[in-house]
Amino acid sequence: MRLRIDFSYDGTDFAGWAKQPGLHTVQGTLDGALATILRMDTIQSTVAGRTDAGVHATRQTAHVDVDQSVEPGQLIRQLNSILSSEPIHIHRVTAAPPGFDARYSPMFRRYEYRVSDAVGNRDPRTRHFTLWIDDHLDMDLMNKAATSLLGLHDWTTYCKPRPGATRVRELQIFRWRRENDGTLVAEVQADAFCHNMVRNLVGMCIAVGRGKLNVSDAVALREERTRTSAFIVIPPHGLTLVEVGYPVDDEVGARAELSRTRREPV
Amino acid sequence: MRLRIDFSYDGTDFAGWAKQPGLHTVQGTLDGALATILRMDTIQSTVAGRTDAGVHATRQTAHVDVDQSVEPGQLIRQLNSILSSEPIHIHRVTAAPPGFDARYSPMFRRYEYRVSDAVGNRDPRTRHFTLWIDDHLDMDLMNKAATSLLGLHDWTTYCKPRPGATRVRELQIFRWRRENDGTLVAEVQADAFCHNMVRNLVGMCIAVGRGKLNVSDAVALREERTRTSAFIVIPPHGLTLVEVGYPVDDEVGARAELSRTRREPV
């Protein structure tokens, strides 16, 4: 039986999603709780967005295969009870439809990155999920740079390379807004992201907002398809996975097949 | 020279505002930073809202008297530098107008209290400033109870008593809204608050929202002017001071005189 689990976490005290011996990770904590409740020796979850250390998720999705029939309503209560002292909260547990794969079935992932560039508007309550910088940023220029990048492209410039894998992705949404309290929020959506891609895209926009790069550099650098020192990868703690979009149930299998073919090393 | 200081803090790791020997308090931390920068032996700040342990502030105001001329722009940079590892951020430092008193000049204080009553909508990033409860709350009933209380009244039922001091206050705003993510937020404004008043008012509304009290009990209990066990004082961590409203500069002195006369023990 395959279960779909929707959940959220504060990434501050985690060494990222992926299980690592001796480290406090989201996957290690979630799989450990599932193994305890289901009395299984090992659980290996698969997740939509493998977040790095310090990165948060308000909407994350994983799947796990279990060797027994499970009552989802009871499992959600047991999980939240066993995880009550952890910064993880389980929103939903459901029986996954046939062919569902948390990693390969999504149509899109959406992230937000929060930046406070106004000394007079800082909120220490949200500091662990907001980047504080001292320069005032020009949001109009940042939006011009962001919009110029939309579409299906090779993102080698904006990625930490993984040998053999494609860096072609479709950037579907990339825009900046200011919240009422002055916080700048980037909304970034793609079918999938390469490693560090959001943090590089945001880093480039911040360089534009500071006047260190021109709007036209966003595309020019991307077309060079090579690593660059023109901007820096921005710190992880401002980043949150806020949505993973799946197709309707009878299309999740076909979508997973398509993504696997496109994205995996040949 | 009297300085007005506007600032914010995350109250999670503080034992409240008021200085206490051996404890990490907001006042102790702020006054210590000021004393270090200004090379003064003692600094004694006065604050608009003396928040309890665990209570936050996004807009708090204090005044301090200093024995030297101070350049506000430089002081704000020095304070934020010395406080960079503390969950305190200084927004503004200005020379206070004649007669200004952070505690007695305000026309109003406004607080917010955040409650998550929806298992499917919890955000672990904001858990330290949001109360999580398992029952679904009826916001319409809570708003009816809140509205029924508005006006100038004796709040003994809703206060932790302080001998000799009046418990008469003007409740100016009390209403509930739901944020986009489902979080319930109470907005509570008064000329001033007695000790624990917001947390008691919110505790009463939550009892109404759960169906444990009737809407009419809000006023009926207040009119009894005595401590009650009909509702509980709600935990501090959901509470944030979000605004302190001062009159225009040439009225701050008269306003302070009026408040002192009204509020102090005879």
How would a crystallographer describe the biggest sheet of chain A?
10 strands, mixed
Low-confidence stretches of chain A: none
So, the CATH homologous superfamily of the largest domain in chain A?
Answer: Pseudouridine synthase I, catalytic domain, C-terminal subdomain
- How many separate domains of chain A? 2
- The portion of residues assigned to helices of chain A is 25-40%
Task: Label this structure with key terms.
globular; PsdUridine_synth_TruA_C (chains A, B); homodimer; 10 strands; Alpha-Beta Plaits; 2 domains; 266 residues; alpha+beta; RNA binding (chains A, B); PsdUridine_synth_cat_dom_sf (chains A, B)
Characterize the structure shown:
Helices cover about 25% and strands about 25% of the residues of chain A. Chain A is of the alpha+beta class. In chain A, strands 1, 2, 3, 4, 5, 6, 7, 8, 9 and 10 form a ten-stranded mixed beta sheet that branches. The two termini of chain A are about 30 Å apart. Chains A, B: Pfam families: PseudoU_synth_1 (PF01416). Chains A, B: InterPro entries: PsdUridine_synth_cat_dom_sf (IPR020103), PsdUridine_synth_TruA (IPR001406), PsdUridine_synth_TruA_a/b_dom (IPR020097), PsdUridine_synth_TruA_C (IPR020095), TruA/RsuA/RluB/E/F_N (IPR020094).
Q: How would the blueprint of this fold be written?
A:
The structure is a homodimer of 266-residue chains.
Chain A (H helix, E strand, L loop, with lengths): L1 E8 L16 H13 L7 E2 L8 E10 L6 H11 L5 E8 L12 E9 L14 E2 L6 H10 L2 E4 L13 E11 L5 E7 L6 H13 L7 H8 L14 E7 L6 H12 L3
Parallel strand pairs in A: 3-10, 5-6
Antiparallel strand pairs in A: 1-3, 1-4, 2-3, 5-9, 5-10, 7-8, 8-9
